[in-house]
Amino acid sequence: MELDQLQQTVVNALEDVKATNIEVIDTTKLTALFDRMIIASGNSGRQTRALARNVQDEVKKAGGAVNSVEGEDGGDWVLVDLGTIIVHIMQPAVRAYYNLEELWKATPSHPKPSKP
Q1: Counting Cβ atoms within 10 Å, is residue 104 exposed (0-12), middle (13-18) or buried (19+)?
Q2: What are the pLDDT digits (tens) for 81-112?
Q3: pTM of the model
Q4: Strands (DSSP E) found in 29-84
Q5: What CA–CA distances, in Å, run from 103 to 16, 50, 106?
Q6: End-to-end CA distance of the chain
Q7: Residues pairing with 70 in the sheet
Q8: For 19-32, how does the pLDDT look when each residue is reduced to its tens digit (9 = 90+)?
Q9: Looking at the domain 3-104, which fold is it?
Q10: Helix-strand-coil split of the chain, %, nearest 5
């Protein structure tokens, strides 16, 4: 499955189950492990599990493969590994605590020379 098609399938699957704050991060210049990270919030463990299940179902329906799923037991943070895309579905407090967006969007900073 093509990357853009897979990304759209995931976003649509998340929207179908009312995920909030869906964010897509292009990681191609940051890591060779995957090309996109998609982060979304669910309001409860039940919703995060439903979101993860819907992502898996829709990706499989579209002809894609699901490599693995972690965290479904607890539901605070469910990770769905689709190979080229990693999907993080988190409850808001967990998402705020780990702040993955800031970690993965951060560009290397170079110290500016101090002014005399």
Answers
A1: middle
A2: 999 999 999 999 999 999 998 878 754 444 44
A3: 0.87
A4: 36-41, 68-70, 77-81
A5: 27, 26, 6
A6: 56
A7: 79
A8: 999 999 999 888 89
A9: Beta Polymerase; domain 2 (3.30.460)
A10: 40, 25, 40
